[in-house]
Design goal:
transport; binds 2-acetamido-2-deoxy-beta-D-glucopyranose; Zinc activated ion channel; 7 helices; rod-shaped; cell membrane; 4-stranded antiparallel β-sheet; Neur_chan_lig-bd_sf; 37% helix
């Protein structure tokens, strides 16, 4: 079931990379073309409402972006779901009227009856415009104000090196494909209106930027997301550390005790289960993988080493004692001597066996010291790496190219 689920996820991710440009609904349908475009008749084409003319300068459209919610951050699929409100305003002198002749302060018009910019979000997997027929408010001097609410799921390249203490910048690039940068220019600024803080990822900062050197007019909203989840630390780091500590303590059990092998093997088994669920919970990428993945792999190797050492030395000791028991000439004499002299006697004539046992114990002791040192060192190295490591993802191939949209307009 789990693998099926992952497969579904992969299929969805594949789909989303195929369809990175999901067109936001053209805000009003009759803006770009009449309902039945008849290119042979110039009259009908002229009937479509053209962008207000501002001489040689582009028309200036002010955009206020209100971010009201970031309700889902999926690091496995690299997506962010957010709710935004856009307030677009511009001047269309053709709509101005004589305020002293007509006393109305403002009128509300369905947006099909005037020119509006059509917006698409480059990173969006889907966009849900809340209002299919938004109304625009027009002032006597021709100022148009249009409010649009939308919910969208967008793709974002999270920087997960420091997961679960990661910070990422996710951007939403709005393009107006029906116009060129010569005709239209955006002035954008963003307002953080998020009221909910009960989130794993919180929006720390909000920036807007008008992308330079673009063929298509566009602006970009950048959300700085910060992971504040304590759950991952409790669910990942604490069990890992506890297992390591338990394993170090297991080294204090005497080598002869059979419980020690059982103890260590149980720990290793428990850790393997934990490790496989952990690997599924962490995303992977072509660069800047989470440091935790390396940390837990080192932990696995340490536990494996200590279990192997216990099994090897205990195996050596067991072979010794088996060898003693089946050696027929030695059996009665040794039993007698043991009774007389006690187990710790220095005068034991079977010095070979004693020295083998003490050799194994000395080796075990030495291994224990080395093991504790390497555990402490690995923790320190990890802490240092965590503090100082930075990672810059490989530049995206499309980053350097100015965005012309699907065709040169
Ligand atoms: C026309 O362009 C000028 C210069 O860029 C700008 O200051 C002005 O606001 C523009 N007018 C409109 C209606 O956009
Ligand atoms: C507006 O209407 C008033 C009254 O009818 C008139 O006196 C004035 O000239 C008009 N202004 C313009 C700019 O047409």
């Amino acid at each position: 079931v789990m693998s099926l689920w992952i497969l579904l996820h992969l299929a969805f991710l594949g789909l989303s990379t195929i369809l990175p440009w999901v067109q936001g609904s053209s805000l009003c349908k009759s803006v770009t073309w009449p309902s039945s475009p008849n290119l042979n008749s110039p009259l009908e084409v002229q009937e479509t409402i053209q962008i207000p003319n501002n001489g040689s300068a582009p028309l200036l459209v002010n955009v206020q972006v209100f971010v009201s919610n970031v309700f889902n951050v999926d690091i496995l699929r690299y997506t962010v779901s957010s709710m935004l409100m856009l307030r677009l305003s511009w001047l269309d002198a053709r709509l101005a009227w004589n305020a002293s002749a007509h006393s109305r302060h403002a009128v509300t018009l369905p947006c099909e009856s005037l020119w509006t910019p059509g917006l698409s979000i480059r990173e969006a997997l889907w966009v849900d415009w809340k209002d299919q027929n938004p109304q625009a408010r027009v002032d006597p001097d021709g100022h148009v104000e249009l409010n649009l609410a939308l919910t969208t799921e967008t793709n974002c390249d999270f920087e997960l090196l420091h997961f679960p203490r990661d910070k990422s910048d996710c951007s939403l690039s709005f393009f107006a494909f029906s116009n060129t940068a010569v005709e239209l220019e955006f002035r954008a600024h963003a307002v953080n209106e998020i009221v909910s803080v009960k989130r794993e990822y919180v929006v720390g900062d909000l920036k807007t930027q008008v992308l330079p050197r673009q063929v298509v007019p566009c602006f970009q909203v950048t959300l700085s997301l910060k992971n504040t989840a304590l759950k991952s630390i409790i669910a990942l780091l604490v069990p890992g550390e506890a297992l390591l500590l338990a394993d170090v303590c297991g080294g204090l059990l005497p080598l002869q005790a059979t419980e020690r092998i059982a103890y260590k093997v149980t720990l290793l088994l428990g850790y393997l289960v934990f490790h496989s669920s952990l690997v599924q919970a962490l995303p992977s990428s072509s660069s800047c993988n989470p440091l935790l993945i390396y940390y837990f792999t080192v932990l696995l190797l340490l536990l494996f080493l200590s279990t192997t050492e216990t099994v090897l030395l205990a195996g050596l000791l067991a072979r010794d004692s088996v060898g003693d028991k089946i050696s027929p000439s030695a059996v009665p004499r040794r039993d007698q001597r043991k009774e007389n002299l006690g187990p710790n006697s220095e005068a034991d004539p079977r010095g070979g066996k004693r020295s083998r046992r003490s050799w194994a114990e000395a080796a075990d002791h030495a291994f224990f010291l080395v093991y504790v040192t390497s555990v402490v060192c690995s923790q320190l190295i990890f802490a240092g790496t965590w503090m100082w490591a930075t990672c810059k993802s490989d530049p995206a191939p499309g980053k350097a190219v100015p965005h012309g949209g699907p065709r040169r307009l």
